[in-house]
Design a protein that fits this description.
Layout lengths: L3 E3 H12 L10 H22 L7 E7 L5 E3 L4 E10 L5 E3 L1 E2 L8 E2 L5 E9 L10 E3 L5 H15 L5 H17 L14 H5 L10 E7 L2 E7 L5
Parallel strand pairs: 6-10
Antiparallel strand pairs: 1-9, 2-8, 3-11, 4-5, 4-8, 7-11, 10-11
């Protein structure tokens, strides 16, 4: 279950840590909002990189047009997880990334088809007081402490207390976040079964993709299924 914190909560928390609850003229809400959004991205990156990435996943449908290779990535795109081609209403096949130097083995799709792009979105921006960030397990505390550190540096106060907390929180994320998904095996033992999904089938010859210039490029194999 998500544990969310609002923008208003983060500002109040940062003021408490930096002892600036009454100093709204020198440390404005707008300044604290900017700090919250700056450090939110750092914490979000740490959580996504620690995994599992699917916790944050979004998806988008791409309608492939015959003869067209490039399709715009989602506006909030951060990292790609998987690309699937729809073989039927109930069946999807994974596409493999195109390797360097493989372009000569592929061409533009010859027929229309549908893809599902699964990706990790970039974090949103906190604007209104009630806008929230998912701290998952108390990791939103790192945002508040980073905000407080910047405020204390601006005021030429000693930030050593919050610096110690920041170090502890970063270490906690590194130690604990990778244990959030304990269901998957530690090692992949059967790669042959996965690689068989890369080959095109009779219903769709689209078989590979690559990311280029802000676009998802989709390719059809020159090899034909008998």
């Amino acid at each position: 279950m998500a544990r969310t914190v609002t923008l208003a909560n983060l500002r109040t928390w940062a003021r408490q840590l930096s002892d600036t609850e009454g100093d709204t003229s020198n440390i404005t809400d707008a300044e604290l909002t900017a700090l919250a959004n700056r450090h939110l991205t750092e914490v979000y990156d740490a959580l996504v990189d620690a995994g599992p990435a699917d916790y944050y996943a979004s998806s988008q449908t791409v309608n492939v047009v015959a003869g067209t290779i490039a399709y715009a990535l989602p506006a909030d795109f951060r990292d790609l997880l998987e690309v699937y081609v729809h073989e039927s209403d109930s069946e999807r096949r994974i596409l493999r990334p195109m390797g360097n130097g493989e372009r000569g083995r592929y061409q533009a799709p010859l027929a229309a088809t549908t893809l599902t792009v699964e990706y990790v979105p970039a974090p949103g921006t906190l604007v209104a007081n009630g806008d929230t960030f998912d701290g998952v397990s108390g990791w939103e505390e790192l945002i508040a402490n980073l905000m407080a550190r910047d405020v204390m540096v601006k005021r030429e106060a000693d930030p050593s207390v919050v610096l110690h907390t920041i170090a502890e929180l970063r270490g906690r994320i590194a130690r604990r976040a990778r244990m959030r998904d304990r269901a998957n095996p530690k090692r992949i033992t059967d790669l042959d079964e996965q690689s068989s999904l890369w080959f095109p089938t009779a219903s769709s010859n689209v078989s590979a993709y690559r990311l280029r210039g802000g676009n998802l490029e989709v390719y059809e194999s020159l090899w034909r299924v008998p």
